[in-house]
Amino acid sequence: MKPFTYHRAQTLTDRPDGATIIAGGTNLLDLMKHEVMTPEALLDITALDLNRLEAQGEGLRIGALVRNSDLAADPVIRRDYPLLSRALLAGASGQLRNMATTGGNLMQRTRCPYFYDRRMPCNKREPGSGCAAIGGINRNHAILGTSPACIATYSGDMAVALRALDAEVEIDGPAPRRVPLSEFHRLPGDTPDVETALRPDEIITAVLLPAPIGGQQLYRKVRDRASYAFALVSVAAIIGMENNRIAHAALAFGGVAAKPWRDAGAEALLIGQPPSDALFEQAADLILKPAKGYGGNDFKIPLLRRTLIATLRDATGMEATA
């Protein structure tokens, strides 16, 4: 690990130019140890008053420093936004959840092994150097929203649930603003090194949730082992039923793209329809129409289909077939 200076912020404006923000540090410290990130200065923001969870209108404001373990266990979250609690509990070990923060979770970087290996070309780490995952070992890589420059995935679980919940990110900087989570993480395009909408002079202060939507909320994660592991695919589903028809639907997917993935067309297809396997197959067809495998991850296409259909069957209360 290369030498760096350390500063502990006391106010939001106490931000030295060029300093890299650290809170829980669970991802950043790994990257520093591998010398993938080599900041000259760290800015510790854990003393800031950003660790509260409070009502905001009919919704909820989650401070950027709220720990994942506290958020998952909060009674309001468990009652009104159970999808978020389930995703958090699926997302990491207990030790990591005790350290990881809401803002830091959103900012975590890909776990692509080529990104971590400085001997290999990676456009995220060194723009223009190439993508070793294309044609390499790519079992855990993306099938949606990829580009010739990068096929890495966003590895988090919390953000997948927040995407289905239509969350916004509250950002402080020269011009404070709110960014829908749908626009916060970026697809790679030809600039995979630009991963989020956050600018160098800005900081996440909170995540904002709208009023609870109700309905059945499920988070299903498929991974290589039952203990702590990143998703091969995951599905966050919010389904409301009325008169045996789907009244509202929100679906988000993890482990398949560089950002939490959502397809408005598939949701619109479901709304107003009685649940059936044929309907769910049509929704899967829409979602997977642009999907592309790269050899090692081809299996994710049928896996996402099966996981989506199983989740929708549970969320709509369909009886299991023989």
Written description of the protein model:
The protein is globular and about 60 Å long. It has helices spanning 28-33, 68-73, 75-80, 82-91, 94-99, 102-107, 113-116, 158-164, 181-184, 264-270, 277-288, 300-316; strands spanning 5-8, 20-22, 41-44, 53-56, 59-63, 168-172, 177-180, 203-209, 216-222, 233-242, 245-254. Helices cover 28% and strands 20% of the residues. The protein is of the alpha+beta class and 322 residues long. The mean pLDDT is 95. The chain is built from twelve helices and eleven strands.
Percent range for helical residues?
A: 25-40%
Question: Proportion of β residues?
Answer: 15-25%
Give me the number of helical elements. Answer: 12
What structural class is derived from the secondary structure elements? alpha+beta
- Strand order, sheet with most strands: 4-5-8-6-7
Report the end-to-end length measured between terminal Cα atoms: 56 Å
Rounded mean pLDDT is 95
Largest sheet: 5 strands, antiparallel
Element pattern in H and E: EEHEEEHHHHHHHEEHEEEEHHH
- Shape descriptor: globular
